[in-house]
Amino acid sequence: ENIFDRPRMAPKTPIKNEPIDLSKQKGCTPERNPITPVKVIDRPQPDPWTPTANLKMLVSAASPDMRDREKKKELFRPIENSEQSDTPDSLQYDIVDDSMVDEFEKQRPSRKQKSLGLLCQKFLARYPNYPLSTEKTTISLDEVASILGVERRRIYDIVNVLESLHLVSRVAKNQYCWHGRHNLSQTLKMLQEAGELQYGELMTSQHKEQDLEDKFGEQKKETIPDSQDRPLLEFSEPDCTSASANSRKDKSLRIMSQKFVMLFLVSKTKIVTLDIAAKILIEETQDTVDHSKFKTKVRRLYDIANVLTSLGLIKKVHVTEERGRKPAFKWIGPVEFPGKTDELRGHSPTSDPLPGTQRGACAQYKTSATGKQRFTRHASFNRAQPCEAARRKVNSEPNSPRQERQDENCSKMINLAAVCRQKIEEDTGNKACDTETILNPSKNSNTTLPFSLLPVPGDSDFCVNPLPQAVFPVVQADVPSFSLPFGITSQASHPSTPAASKTENGKPTLVPNQPFLCFPSSSLFMLCGGLQENNLSESLPTSGDVGHRSAEAQAAVPPAGSQKRSSHKCSSPSAPVDDEEPAAKKQTLEQSDLPLSLVVPKKPSESPKAEPSPGSGCSSAVHLEMNCLDLASPAAADAANKESTKPLDCQEQEKQNKDTDEPSPGNEHISKENANQPFQPQYLYVQPTAGLSSFNFLFSANQAPRAISLAANQLPSLSVPCVMVPSAALASFPLVCSPSFTSPLSPVPDGSFSAAASTSFSMSSLASTTPVFISTTAVVTPKVSPAPSLDPQQPAHPALHLSPVLTRSCSAVKLDSPVCMGHPVTLLKLQQPSSAPLTPKSIRPAHHEAFFKTPGSLGDPVAWKKNEGNQTRNASSVQRRLEISSTSPD
DNA sequence: CACTCCCGCCAATTA
DNA sequence: TAATTGGCGGGAGTG
C-alpha cells in the first residue's frame, strides 16, 4: 500500500497519514520529495512554521528534524485533515471525491489505520522476507518513520520486536540492518529451547488445562517464582551484570518479545492468553503484582502481539474458559525447527572457512547459537568474537551496554542451547533416537532446520558431537561414501513428484526432488532443488504432503490436524515429520511440514539411496529450506504456492495467500504461504558442518532470481543446486570453489541467494566441481561426474546436525522412518527453512557485513557469525527437505 | 464496559 | 549536552 501511495502521494498529498509525513518526507526523503510540497501547499500553510519546517527539513533530513516535524505534525494534522486530506491511509488515494473523501477519510484515519499492526505490515512490506544475501538492507529509522508517517517511537516498537527475532539488527544509531526471515527459524529454535528450559514445566502443566492462569499463577509463585522466570531472564541477560543495567533491559520490549514467543513455542496448545503471558512475564514476580503493572504488561504484550501478528507468527484468538472468554494469541508460525542450529557451535574458530574479514561482517550475526545473535548494534562486528566466547561461557561480560546485553542474552541463549545440546548429545547415544522431538522436528524441520541432517545410523557420533560444538562437524565426519540417492531422487520424483509438487505447495517439490548428495568422507552434500523442482520432484509421496498439512492442523489444534498427522506418521515412517505435536502447527512450520512430509515419503525412497552405510554414511536428512528467497518471485511463488509448500517460512505471509491446502490446516493456516517459494529452488546450503570448517556448501539456489536463472542455465545440466563440500573436500577438490570462493563459498551458500555470490558459486562450483558433486537426480547430475563419488549407497553420514534441534530431527528421523530404523539408513533431509542452514549463517553474515562494516573488525568472529547469518538465510529460503533413507529406497 | 492499544511524556542511554 | 532509545501509562477508540 504504501508503495502505491507513495507515488501518488508524492505528487499530491500524499500521504495518508499525515501531514507529518509530508513534512518529513520533504525533508527526509528525497524520494518523495518531489512533491512533497503538496502538502504544504495544500494545506494552507498551515502554518507558519511550515516554511520553517521546510527549511529545517531540507536542511536536515536528519532525525532531529523529524522530530520537529512530529510536533509540527500535530499542528498540521488538523490542518491536513481539514484540508484535504486525505484519507489517510489507504483509503483512497483518490480523492476523487474530494469532498466525500476528505471529510470522511481525512478525518480519521481511524484508529485502526494507525495501528501498530498495520504499521508493521507496511514496514515489513518494504523489505523482502528473504533478502538476498548480498544485499544488506539498511533501515534508517528516520526515513522509515517519515515514509510511514509515524513517529519514530512507533518504529522502535516494531524494530525492537523484529530485533528480538533477529529479523533486523541494529547497526548504528539510527540504522538497522534488515535480515529478513532467513534466520527466523534458528531464532525460533533457540527460543524454543530456551523456553523449554525456562518455561517448559509451566507450559506443560498449564497447557493441559488451559487455564494457565490459575495454575500458572500458582505454580509460578509457588514453585518457581523465580526459578522459572529467571532462567529466561538470565537468559536474556547474563548475569545481571548490573542490576541497573538490567533494569532497563529486562523490561525491554525485546526481551519481553522473546519470552512471549518462547511461551508459544513451549506451549503445546500454541495458544497463550494475554493474562497468562503477562503474569509470566512479570518477572518481578510476585511482589509486585500490581494491577497497574499487570496492566502495563498487557499493553506491551499487545504491542508485541501486533507485530508478531503482522509477521504471521501468531493470530488473535479467544479462549473461552469457564470464566469467560479471554483474549489470547495462537502461534501460527513454524513450530518446529529442526535444525536448530548449532551453527554457532559449529563453527569452530579455527576451522572457519570464513575469512576474518567476512566474519567481521558477520559479526552482526553473532551467532550465537541460536539466535541470539543479535547483533549488537553497532559494533557488533567486533563483537563477534566475544560472542563466541560468550557462548561458551555463558556470560559474557558486558562491554558495552547494549551490546553487551544483547550479547549476554545471546550468551545466555547460547548457554541454554549448549545445555540442550549437551543433553542431546548425551542422548545421542541414541542419536537417532531422539525421537520425539525428532518427529516434530521432522516436520518442523522445514522450518527450522534447514538442514538438518541427521545422520542416522552410524553417525550418532556425528550427530551428537556436532551439536555440541559445531554442529557441522558431523558431516564431516566421515562420511565415507556418501551416498546419494540419486536414484532416490529420481525415484521419488517419479511417483509423486508431480503430484507432490503440486500438492504441497510446491515448495517441496524441490525438496524432494532435490538431489542430495552426500559425500561420505569428504562430505559433501549437495542439495538440489531443481528449478524444476517441481517436476522432479521427487516429491515425495504425496502422502507426505498430506501429512504435513495435517500436521499443521494438528499443530495448532490437535484435533483436526492431528489425525492426519498421526496417521501419516504412522503410515509412513518417513513422515516423521509429523510430529506429534505438532503443536507445532505453526503454520509456517506446518507448511514446512507439509513439505516435509512430502519429503518424507520420499525419503524412504530416498533413503535407499542415501543410505549409506550406517555408520559410515551420513545420513542426514537435510532439510533445506529454500526460502523463497526471493521474494522476488512472488508471483511464481504464489502460483506455486498454492500448492507447494513450502516455502514456508518465508512466506508465511504468503501463506495466507495460499490457503491452506489442507483442510484442517486450513483453519488458520492459510497463512501458509509457503508456497511460494517453492519454486525457488533450491538453495544451496552449505552446511558447514563442521562449522563451516568442515564443510562448505554450495548452493545453487535457484531461487534467487538471479540465481535461478543462472542455475537454470547452468544447472540444468546439473541438477543439483547445491553442493556441500567438506572443507577437506574442498581442499581436495578444486572445484569447490574457486579459490576465491572458497571461503566465500561457504558463506555464500546460505546466502545463496545472495545472488551473485551464490550464483557464482554454483557456477563455478559446478564447473569445477564437477568432480565433486552430486546430483541427486540423475538427470540433474549429468555433469555430475562426480557422481561417482557419490556413492549413493554409501552411507552417508548423517551427521549434520547442527543444532540440538537437529538432533531432534534426527531422532525424529528415526522415528519416522521406522523403515529405516532397522537399517542404518541415512536420511537426508533438507530443510530449507530457516533453521537448517546453520551453516549458512556464516555466510550471510559475511555478506552483510561485508557490505557494511567489514572493516577490520571483522575478524574471526565474523566468520562464524557469518555462518550464522548464512544459515539464517538458508533457513529462510524455502525449505526443502530431502530425506533419504539409505535403506529403504523404495 | 471491557478490550485494545495509540500517543507521547520523559527517563535511561548513547554519542 | 544533545540525541537516541524506549518504558510507561493515560486515556481514547471499538465493539
UniProtKB/TrEMBL annotation:
Region called Disordered, residue ranges: 1-50, 63-90, 221-245, 340-360, 380-409, 539-619, 638-677, 854-890
InterPro entries in the cross-refs: E2F, E2F_WHTH_DNA-bd_dom, WH-like_DNA-bd_sf, WH_DNA-bd_sf
Transmembrane segments: none
Localisation per UniProt entry: Nucleus
Domain E2F/DP family winged-helix DNA-binding as annotated: residue spans: 111-180, 248-333
A Pfam match: WHD_E2F_TDP
SMART domains: E2F_TDP (SM01372)
GO CC entries: RNA polymerase II transcription regulator complex
One Gene Ontology biological process: sprouting angiogenesis
Molecular-function GO term, any one: DNA-binding transcription factor activity, RNA polymerase II-specific
SUPFAM superfamilies reported in the protein's UniProt record: Winged helix' DNA-binding domain (SSF46785)
UniProt keyword Cell cycle present: yes
Keywords assigned: Activator, Cell cycle, DNA-binding, Nucleus, Repressor, Transcription, Transcription regulation
Compositionally biased spans, kind Basic and acidic residues: 65-77, 221-232, 652-661
Residue spans of biased composition, Polar residues class: 81-90, 869-890
Top-rank taxon: Eukaryota
Predominant cellular place of this UniProt entry's protein: nucleus
Family: Belongs to the E2F/DP family.
UniProt name for this protein: Transcription factor E2F7
Gene encoding the protein: E2f7
